[in-house]
Amino acid sequence: MAVSPEQHSSTSHFVREIEKTDGSVLKVYQYSTGDVGCVVWDAAIVLSKYLETDQFCNSRSGASTWSSKHMLELGAGTGVVGIMAASLGANVTVTDLEDLQPLLKLNIRENRELLSTGSITAKVLKWGETVTDFLPHPDYILMADCIYYEQSVVPLVETLKILAGPKTCVICCYEQRTMGVNPEVEKRFFELLLQDFEAEEVPAERQDPEFNSPDIHILHLRRRQG
Ligand SMILES: C[S@@+](CC[C@H](N)C(=O)[O-])C[C@H]1O[C@@H](n2cnc3c(N)ncnc32)[C@H](O)[C@@H]1O
């Protein structure tokens, strides 16, 4: 279903602009009411800007590590991370629950002029449900702020185990929260995940110099071999 910003039922939208290194601007529509996926979370900005850092992208030549890579984003929300990756040449599938599909499709449409070399498609993927449609294994799985919900820990880890092949790198960005159930959810998630994956944390100096924060972490996760 194609939804224009004006058509979205009863809720108003507001736009978050994210400037890319090449000076172009990503315009991300968010809704003022709705579930958590309707707005851009800080971890998504940190991850988007990390993808653009010069270790991966040469702003002069336009060459990019992500070019032609197959990427799958889980819990994409507004789709900002996936749209950034596609604007850097990746072939991306952004996924989230059914309710988020109109917003994902709206943001893909509104940023189409930034997608000259890469491609992007929005699809429904609910953690813990059948994900064989998303195989073969992608080169990269992207996740921003997806570790926050107690009931999702087991299904999310199971989904990652199915989707990540021996060569897949999961780039997981999350905000470390100290309130309520968050520390316990995070602990449980990593206890389970690290049984099958090894993690390497990206130090602050390899992140975007402006868009980083001590409480937002970026991990590269790969399946343990053998
Ligand atoms: C905190 S939001 C983060 C959204 C976006 N990645 C960002 O950082 O701006 C978490 C996202 O996970 C999605 N999500 C939650 N439970 C899910 C599930 N069981 N299957 C798929 N997506 C889910 C939500 O719909 C939401 O878009």
Automatic annotation (TrEMBL):
InterPro entries: Methyltransf_16, SAM-dependent_MTases_sf. It comes from the Eukaryota. GO terms for cellular component: cytosol; protein-containing complex. Pfam families: Methyltransf_16. One of its GO terms (biological process) is methylation. GO terms for molecular function: methyltransferase activity. Keywords: Methyltransferase, S-adenosyl-L-methionine, Transferase. SUPFAM superfamilies: S-adenosyl-L-methionine-dependent methyltransferases. This is Protein-lysine methyltransferase METTL21D. It comes from Silurus meridionalis.
